[in-house]
């Protein structure tokens, strides 16, 4: 490893002094909304302080310069990688850790206690890791672990074969466990100024592995847990009412509980371990409350953000409005690092839920009868969306060549039990006519949170046997009998071919009349489906390549054909096929050209990279040919 370009002693000592300074006030150039900053947001890096440092030290952690507004020149082919001559020396990393008040963590894979090559082998710890590897909270609480290890490269999974090798694979090399904004700024500036890959993680929930990156410096926002409720808020957008200010580390479970405690409702996802203020909100965020309040991003009033030049700013309707537009639906890990978000809180609302299942075997019905029932269900989607309901369901092929339907659940905000039965009576009557055995068992709740808590358990993660993809189906497919038949046959054929299909009926439209980057597909949809092939736990490159072909060609291919982007079909960017062709339009809809323009303005040096993120088409991770994309490889410019 090459020596540091900076003398270790000169580097270490002044940075140590910086770490011991008291909280530094914001500079006059920084604008904020009228909301109070969280305590961790008051700790900031400023130009005034940087001016006191020697030139060598300042070069490591300085803000981006004015020339960053110009297109990058003489850019290197690849991000600096461990083993390169310009990779920072151990002394530099030590000094950075001192600057960060000891927040720098050298990555140790979560499953490394199962292997001898890391020097921390422990059979009991390995057993605990193995037991908890499908638990999302296990990965959430680890600085680097990701909930979808396929995209890490599967290089360090729990195993009983302790003499095999565990490697970092797609895990970042170092992590900053941030507890204040200044640490985010320092880490981001360091990564930009040394040309090291930067990644951001909260929970690691992303299906596509965006919080992973071999050879990267990672910013871990998990512990920024502050939540503040403001019952009387006047936004610069014209909104007046209750809001929450939510820290970057807050999960869906935590904001739902806070809303319930304050007798209000917020728009969040169905998986409680998802990080709320990061990729979920910035990716648009579909929600069981979408038929009342649209997408989660539609409910955002302001965000506090560290941008690619290291500055800490507010994005709102009146402050940096172009960035505000992009951050509401334009994807995470792309335009900046969100430290908090202000979201609307809506009145308490009652909910009726219904969870049930039926199968061809239990009811003694034919497969044709089953699919007649499914067709009747699908035909109801526009009406069900217009009636402000939502559902989450699965269709499972069974071992006896039949099928099972699982409603998990039907979700009816603002309904009574009587209105629930009235709405679904046409479909329930068909089920009874076909002599299907089912019990809708509707339950009435006087508020969102208890209904949510009963309806959705936490998901199982950490699996390496599924490669998921999804499709958003536009309302236009229901406006023509011919289009509907073609679409429904494509969906049915997917299931007949043995694929498990998960789905939603939902119609978020644009109920709050927002102008933001939420994909145009979500403004037109009434159905969203997930499907994917199964691979063996030991799948190597050849099996993975074949599975990726099946996903693209046999599952998503027919769905794309009946729901093309030209007719407002698309794909939800947070639960998608990581190798989705034409992802720019599929994930971002008609908004992509404007998003790319904003990306080039706010991040001209391309500090932020995430797979399939806006502007990422100029980069590739050189992980070998897996068919699907992992993060186990050097990040390089395409064509170099």
UniProtKB/TrEMBL annotation:
Chain ranges of the FAD-binding PCMH-type domain: 168-348
TM helices/strands, residue ranges: none
Signal peptide positions (record): 1-29
Alphabetized Gene3D superfamilies for the sequence: 3.30.465.10
UniProt keywords, alphabetically: Oxidoreductase, Signal
InterPro entries: BBE, FAD-bd_PCMH, FAD-bd_PCMH-like_sf, FAD-bd_PCMH_sub2, FAD-linked_Oxidoreductases_BP, Oxid_FAD_bind_N
Recorded GO MF terms: FAD binding; oxidoreductase activity
UniProt-listed PROSITE patterns: FAD_PCMH (PS51387)
Family membership: Belongs to the oxygen-dependent FAD-linked oxidoreductase family.
Record-given protein name: FAD-binding domain-containing protein
Source organism of the structure: Sporormia fimetaria CBS 119925
């Amino acid at each position: 490893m090459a020596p540091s370009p900076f003398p270790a002693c000169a580097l270490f000592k002044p940075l140590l002094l910086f770490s011991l300074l008291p909280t530094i006030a914001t500079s006059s150039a920084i604008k904020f909304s009228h909301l109070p900053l969280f305590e961790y947001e008051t700790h900031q890096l400023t130009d005034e302080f940087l001016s006191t440092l020697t030139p060598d030290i300042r070069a490591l952690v300085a803000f981006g310069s004015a020339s960053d507004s110009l297109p990058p020149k003489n850019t290197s082919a690849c991000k600096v990688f461990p083993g390169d001559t310009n990779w920072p020396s151990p002394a530099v990393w030590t000094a950075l850790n001192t600057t960060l008040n000891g927040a720098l963590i050298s990555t140790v894979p979560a499953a490394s206690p199962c292997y001898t090559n890391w020097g921390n082998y422990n059979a009991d710890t390995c057993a605990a890791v193995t037991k908890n590897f499908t638990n999302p909270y296990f990965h959430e609480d680890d600085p680097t672990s990701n909930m979808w290890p396929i995209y890490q490269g599967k290089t360090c999974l729990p195993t009983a074969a302790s003499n095999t090798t565990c490697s970092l694979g797609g895990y970042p090399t170092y992590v900053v466990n941030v507890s204040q904004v200044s640490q985010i700024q320092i880490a981001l500036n360091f990564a930009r100024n040394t040309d090291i890959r930067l990644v951001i993680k909260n929970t690691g929930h992303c299906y596509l592995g965006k919080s992973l990156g071999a050879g990267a410096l990672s910013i871990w926002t998990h512990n920024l847990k502050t939540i503040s409720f403001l019952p009387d808020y006047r936004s610069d957008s014209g909104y007046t009412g209750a809001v929450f200010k939510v820290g970057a580390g807050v999960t869906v479970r935590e904001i739902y509980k806070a809303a319930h405690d304050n007798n209000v409702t917020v728009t969040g996802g169905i998986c409680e371990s998802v990080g709320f203020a990061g990729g979920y909100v910035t990716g648009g965020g579909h929600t069981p409350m979408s038929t009342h309040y649209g997408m989660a991003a539609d409910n955002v009033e302001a965000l506090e953000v560290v941008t690619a030049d290291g500055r800490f700013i507010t994005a709102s309707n009146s402050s940096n409005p172009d960035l505000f537009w992009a951050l509401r639906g334009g994807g995470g890990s792309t335009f900046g690092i969100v430290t908090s978000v202000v979201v609307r809180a809506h009145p308490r609302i009652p909910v009726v839920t219904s969870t049930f299942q039926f199968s061809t075997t239990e009811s003694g019905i034919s497969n044709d009868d089953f699919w007649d029932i499914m067709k009747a269900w699908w035909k109801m989607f526009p009406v069900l969306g217009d009636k402000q309901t939502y559902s989450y369901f699965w269709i499972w092929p069974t071992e006896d060549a039949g099928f099972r339907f699982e409603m998990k659940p039907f979700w009816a905000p603002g309904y009574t039990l009587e209105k629930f039965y009235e709405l679904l009576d046409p479909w329930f009557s068909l089920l009874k006519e076909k002599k299907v055995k089912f019990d809708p068992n509707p339950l009435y709740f006087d508020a969102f949170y208890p209904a949510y808590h009963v309806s959705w358990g936490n998901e199982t993660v950490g699996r390496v046997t599924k490669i998921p993809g999804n499709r958003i189906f536009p309302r236009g497919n229901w406006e023509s009998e011919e289009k509907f038949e073609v679409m429904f046959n494509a969906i049915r054929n997917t299931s007949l071919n043995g694929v498990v299909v998960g789905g939603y009926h939902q119609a978020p439209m644009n109920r709050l009349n927002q102008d933001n980057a939420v994909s145009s597909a979500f403004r037109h949809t009434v159905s969203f489906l997930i499907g994917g092939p199964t691979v063996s736990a030991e799948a190597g490159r050849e099996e993975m390549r074949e599975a990726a072909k099946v996903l693209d060609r046999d599952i998503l291919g027919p769905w794309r054909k009946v729901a093309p982007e030209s007719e407002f079909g698309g794909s939800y960017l947070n639960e998608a096929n990581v190798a989705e062709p034409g992802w720019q339009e599929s994930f971002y809809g008609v908004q992509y050209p404007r998003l790319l323009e904003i990306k080039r303005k706010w991040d001209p040096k391309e500090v932020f990279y995430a797979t399939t993120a806006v502007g990422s088409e100029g980069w590739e991770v050189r992980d070998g040919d897996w068919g699907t994309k992992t993060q186990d490889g050097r990040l390089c410019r395409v064509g170099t």
